[in-house]
Amino acid sequence: MDDGEGVTFSMKPCVIPSPADVNKGVVTVVTEDQDRDYDDIPGTYVFDARRAKEGYQLNKFLMSLNEEPNREAFRSDPSAYLDRFKLTPEQRTAVEERQWLHLLEVGGNVYYTFKLAIFDGLSMQGMGGDMSSITEAEFAEMMRNGGRPIEGNRFKSEWENKNNG
After folding, report:
1. Rg of the chain on CA atoms, in Å
2. Could you tell me if residue 164 is inside a domain?
3. CATH code, domain with 83
4. In 3-state terms, the chain is what percent helix, strand and coil (to 5)?
5. What pLDDT shows up at residue 150?
6. What percent of the chain stands above pLDDT 90?
7. Which residue, of 11, 40, 93, 100, has the greatest Cβ tally within 10 A?
């Protein structure tokens, strides 16, 4: 596959052995379109090979904010600056509307996404609060108290039951 800029890469199946499979001498081949167990964790988007591939241009934009001239160009004309990158419409909207959690879902690396938050003057706790639909202070307090409770947050179905119940 070519990224449009002469960089060629291929997505090959990943071999992810479980401890039990290793003991039996069996491994599991996971293809890029196959669901992973961690896909069922609500509000969690693991930056794996699928998201890295999907988010290549998005992360390229986010990393460009490391350079002051790029920050100035983005500040003076965000739309024109974003036109330099081959973002999907969904990625572009997520950037423009600062949909922090959705940026991760559409391939953004959390550390690169934080560069955009810093550009906006947000702290990590501020971005985390926005992702969690709570204030920065509430997010910081939740982290000091050990984070989000596991009960009710293991599977997407638990969130669906909570919202429908």
Report:
1. 19
2. no
3. 1.10.700.10
4. 55, 5, 40
5. 75
6. 45
7. 100
Which tokens in the block code for residue 20? 């039990």
Q: How many domains does the chain have?
A: 1
Q: How far apart are CA 13 and CA 136, in angstroms?
A: 39
Consecutive 10-residue averages of pLDDT for the chain (165 residues): 50 56 57 68 76 91 95 97 96 96 92 93 90 90 85 70 64
For 9-49, the pLDDT digits (tens) are 444 555 555 666 655 655 555 566 667 777 766 677 777 88
Whole-structure pTM value = 0.70
* 128 SS3 class: helix
Tokens 């669901």 locate to 35
Neighbours of 73 (CB within 10 A): 15
Residue in the block written with tokens 């009960």:
151
Domain of 96? 41-150
Cβ-contact 62, 109 below 8 angstroms: yes
Residue 79 lies in a domain: yes
Q: What is the DSSP letter of 87?
A: -
**Distance of alpha carbon 45 from alpha carbon 51, whole angstroms:** 8
Taking alpha carbons only, the member of 60, 61, 101, 56 closest to residue 78 is: 61
Residue 117 forms part of a structural domain: yes
Residue 31 lies in a domain: no
